[in-house]
Amino acid sequence: MALLQISEPGQAPAPREPRRAVGIDLGTTHSLAATVRDGVAVALADAQGRVLLPSIVRYRADGRVEVGYEAQAHQAEDPKNTIASVKRLMGRALKDLAWTGSAPYDFVDGPGMVQLRTVAGVKSPVEVSAEILRALRLRAESALGGELAGAVVTVPAYFDDAQRQATKDAARLAGLEVLRLLNEPTAAAVAYGLDNAAEGVYAVYDLGGGTFDISILRLARGVFEVLATNGDAALGGDDFDQRIVRWAIAETRLPEPGATDARRLLLAARAAKERLAHEQAAPLQALLADGTRVECMLTRATFEALSADLVQRTLGPVRRALRDAGLAAAEVKGVVMVGGATRMVHVQRAVAEFFGREPLNNLDPDQVVALGAARQANVLVGNRPAGEDWLLLDVIPLSLGIETMGGLVERIIPRNSTIPTARAQEFTTFRDGQSAMSIHVVQGERERVADCRSLARFELRGIPPLPAGVARVRVRFQVDADGLLSVSAREKSTGVEASVVVKPSYGLSEADIERLLREAAEHAQEDMEVRSLAEARVEAERLVTAVRGAIAADAALLEGEERAELERLLDALESLARGTDARAIRNAIAALNRASEPFAARRMNEAVRRALAGREIARLDL
Amino acid sequence: MNNPFELFGLPARYALDAQALERAWHEVQARVHPDRHAHAGEAARRASLAWSARANEAYRTLRDPVERARCLLELNGVDPEFETNTTMPEAFLQRQIEFRETLEEARAAKDVAALERLAADLAAEARALEAEIEQRMDGAGDYAGAAVLVRELRFLHRLAEAVEAAREPE
After folding, report:
1. ipTM
2. For chain A, which terminus, N or C, has the lower number of CB atoms within 10 Å?
3. Using CA atoms, how far apart are residues A216 and A189, in angstroms rounded to an integer?
4. How confident is the model at residue A147 (pLDDT cuts 50, 70, 90)?
């Protein structure tokens, strides 16, 4: 594909060691990390040569934590302390979860995210996910030979704000510098599009272990533009396994199994399902705790009949995504299949029938997301491969709004808006002399607040006493490139201001994260001080390179004493970075950031001016 | 730079060269998008976020036939009076009432074909209005006169949204 070839002002590729960056696919059933080596994206294997890490974490009474295959081996014997499919719990309250009845965990209900009681104490899904991410970070550091400069972590495109925030918190907790949260279908499109020089409209059908996404993208001249996305954040391969378990219980007239037996049956069901991708019938065999041997034969026809409705459920979001994109199925040039669950024969068939074309399966559906994320991480960290350049324009999956009178939602940012985005709306008071306004931020497509997800509540106080309808409160929503929302409100006549980064309802507080980071480091017997210093140095190096590059490229935009001041701060930071005082390095980073703000803003304005100037020249050529 | 036409270097006209707009949008984003500055300092990242959001909003404004018209009215000193002026010509109101009735009947009868016909009728009506707005603004330079047409177009869009919602059972 013809790629955009715009070298960034001041970022001419300097010959240096590439920075270490990874893409991480944090999946419901398994996770993996990938990196770009010599220009090629490769998945990172463990010491045994295995790429996939089962997303399973076991907490032991002795305080040790097992992750992956080690945890999986004890899944059946210790189900309460062995957490699988934790992704389904991210950013969710107990009441949001329909399937908890069948899960063997000891759930702790609370005002925010659901938690789990284990022998090692109460754990939040964020902490459990962080264990998986930490295992992948350690794998990557040993494979790449040192501290990572950054990671791109993927999330289902249909994840809401609470789920995204929870994922980002987990990554931070795992000691990762998160360069970006990237939508899984978009990551797959990057891997697929760049490997196949694709142009045109593509659909990415991503059926994972616990989530379903459909994204419609247009690929042209190096731009990956997501036109629409839809999905179901609680539908995946796990649900097909459950269907098989229910069938097997009925078929063999088993009594309702306990937690241990339920796990054994689930593992047997999954094995049978995987065989059915290649065979017409598969035996389902499990040995239960009391010695009962469960044995039955599952045919592909039976399996398809008992899960046909699940496959159909994926087509509703596909239709909605196409409608939002303003396209018909026939206009889609290719359908990329992502996620292990797309190996099921009836899923392949349903997608082929819907789009009237055979779907594309030429990249490993288990790895394609991580490979795309790795390529994006490589670019974001500053290792821009020569002559290779692309731009991702992604969207927000669900509308954002606030509650108005009568429990109705006023939409401020509609779904499928390209991010980042910022939008404001004015509201007024309901009663005479009203001095405070309660702002309730919600996400979802329904008209009633009760049917949407509540993200946060905050109050704007100190509104001057005015008759009803006179005060003018401007509520501003900003969604960043990770799809994360921040909200601020301002009364216009007095300038009274309130703002929140939306996270209180479901996220962890900054203090929680600090505490957990410390605990985690102690636990892993990593030296917190050493780690903190290493991180500060990485950040310092990054900033010094960036600012020096900017000065070299745009010295003309510096005013008066600005250059001398920046040079002074740069030298100070560099000399501190050679020392061992992490705190002093961070202070110097902050000082340099502050001082370079006006220069950065001027450079951005200049970049826009140049973009348009280039365009006018192109126009004259026509 | 709060004028979206200026941001993309496009003439401030109602008639839109959609391809030129998209190209300009991509070119601006290629320079300001946060992915381009992820490894830069915090100051550059903040400026990038603000600019990228602004470019996306400007793109959305210009692509939307109502928002583009609203923007042109405001640039030419005409208040679009979206919230304050609800007087519409008699004939237009009559048509709206008919459309509403068709919608309610189709919704009650769950008549998908009727909803699709209605959506197509509304789209045709909207295209005709857009042509009229274009003529009034770009041809005659009569922005004040175009304002009532823009309010009508907004009305039609709202109705089309209601039709979409009816076509989309939960």
Report:
1. 0.90
2. C
3. 10
4. confident
